[in-house]
């Protein structure tokens, strides 16, 4: 029991030492984000912008059914679309790595160890 108390005491001490810098850095990051938001003139989209995006998406989806639409797209547009797709896939992969807390695979028990529980 004494080892548990020492371990908890050490963990609490370590957390207390780290809490100050973590809180400070979080506040600094928040202030930087606020300055960027103001300087770039960022704002949430308005209702009119949502409607315009909805109409543009609907128009694109209707025209995407036509083969002529795809023939009229330039090589640069295909390249840009490929780069955007690669970027989205990369973000997906980073999310997977963060979610798994591992670079490769999930930490799953083997089927043999599962049979022991039944």
TrEMBL record:
Keywords, in A-Z order: ATP synthesis, CF(0), Hydrogen ion transport, Ion transport, Membrane, Mitochondrion, Transport
Subcellular location field: Mitochondrion membrane
GO molecular function annotations of the record: proton transmembrane transporter activity
Transmembrane segments: none
Claim: RNA-binding is one of the keywords in the record: no
Coiled coil (UniProt feature): none
InterPro entries attached to this UniProt entry: ATP_synth_F0_gsu_mt
Gene Ontology cellular-component terms listed: mitochondrial membrane; proton-transporting ATP synthase complex
GO annotation terms (biological process): proton motive force-driven ATP synthesis
Family in the record: Belongs to the ATPase g subunit family.
Protein name: ATP synthase subunit G atp20
Species, as recorded: Dissophora globulifera
Gene name, Swiss-Prot/TrEMBL: ATP20
């Amino acid at each position: 029991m004494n080892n548990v108390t020492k371990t908890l005491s050490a963990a609490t001490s370590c957390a207390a030492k780290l809490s100050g810098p973590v809180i400070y850095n979080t506040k600094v990051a928040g202030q930087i984000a606020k300055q960027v938001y103001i300087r770039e003139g960022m704002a949430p989209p308005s209702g009119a912008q949502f409607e315009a995006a909805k109409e543009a998406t609907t128009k694109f989806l209707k025209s995407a059914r036509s083969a002529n639409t795809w023939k009229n797209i330039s090589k640069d547009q295909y390249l840009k679309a490929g780069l955007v797709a690669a970027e989205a896939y990369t973000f997906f992969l980073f999310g997977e790595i963060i979610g798994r807390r591992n670079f490769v695979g999930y930490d799953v028990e083997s089927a043999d160890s599962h049979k022991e529980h039944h």
